[in-house]
Amino acid sequence: MGEYEQQALPLAKRRPPPARLSSLFERLAADGEGPITIAEIRAALGDRSLATLLIFFAIFNLLPLPPPSSAILGLPLLIVAAQMVYGSTSVWLPKRILAISLTREQFRSGMGRVVPWLVWLEKYIRPRYWPFWPKQGERIVGGMALVLAVVVTMPIPLGNWLPAFSITLLGFSLSERDGVLLGVGAAFGVISLAVITLVIGSAGAALGFVWSHLGALW
Predict the structure, then answer these.
(1) pTM for this one?
(2) Residue 99 belongs to what domain range?
(3) What's the domain count of the chain?
(4) For residues 118 and 169, is the Cβ–Cβ distance under 8 A?
(5) Which end of the chain has fewer beta carbons closer than 10 Å to its terminal beta carbon, N or C?
């Protein structure tokens, strides 16, 4: 073993890789009682990248929560994505967002659905075919996530799930520098935008039809 390797080995032992998100969420769901706040979960994430926070807030929008929740939980996505585009190195969140809470039952139920999917996904993601420089990739992924986050906050029934899923994939692709997953996440993003455009167009056409017939009756 060379001198450089002998010096690097103790350093590697002192800096173990961060725990997988699936393990972190599983532990959070198992521990404690009472409501859990965004501030508590963010503290549990520790000193992680902007991509990790993007994944975290996107996953929250995958949970089966009451309809107004997407408008509220979509705001952190907008803030994180905007700061990624700006080039920030750390994330600022308003106190009102940090105070948002879920009951422990809601969190455990949601994590019971999300964690197995995360475990499966984490088996396959790895660094490969990444086309961007570090800061460039963060800004581009942040830009895509920002557009999709706007859709997440729109009051469309079940309209937040597909764009939130796409943001989750994009966040993982950035954190692991996985170009294949980047392409998959971008494809889901395009599909989600097309679906939302179709839904809004159909709703507009239906309203126009009803309005024209009401006008004829009057």
Answers:
(1) 0.81
(2) 3-217
(3) 1
(4) no
(5) C
